[in-house]
Amino acid sequence: MPKMNLSHLEVSLIFAVLCSVVMGIVSKRGIQEQIQYGLYTFGCFIVALFGLGWLMYLGHG
């Protein structure tokens, strides 16, 4: 099996996409609601990803 060299950012974005898709499908009934909620959770993941990244960057020195 070939090795994949992904950065932490790439893995985090893949995780955010997959979790958002699953949460959208599981949480809501209508397709429109699923899409809206999936996009909303993806946005929340991205904001948290960059927010925590900056906190770690600033805290590390």
Task: Write structural notes for this entry.
With 61 residues, this protein is mostly helical. It contains two helices and no strands. The chain has helices at residues 8-27, 31-60. Helix 1 runs antiparallel to helix 2 (31-60).
Radius of gyration, in Å, reads 15 Å
Taking all residues together, what is the mean pLDDT?
Answer: 94
Overall number of strands: 0
- Percent of residues in helices comes to over 70%
Helix run count? 2
Please state roughly what percent of the residues sit in beta strands, choosing from under 5%, 5-15%, 15-25%, 25-35%, 35-45% or over 45%: under 5%
Secondary structure class reads mainly alpha
**What is the string of SSEs from the N terminus onward?**
HH
Unreliable stretches (pLDDT < 50, length at least 5) are none
What is the CA–CA distance across the termini?
A: 39 Å
Describe the main β-sheet briefly: none
Gross morphology:
flat
What secondary-structure arrangement, pairings included, does this model have?
Layout: H1 8-27, H2 31-60
Helix pairs in contact: 1-2
Index terms:
single chain; 61 residues; mainly alpha; flat
Short note summarizing the structure:
This protein has helices spanning 8-27, 31-60.
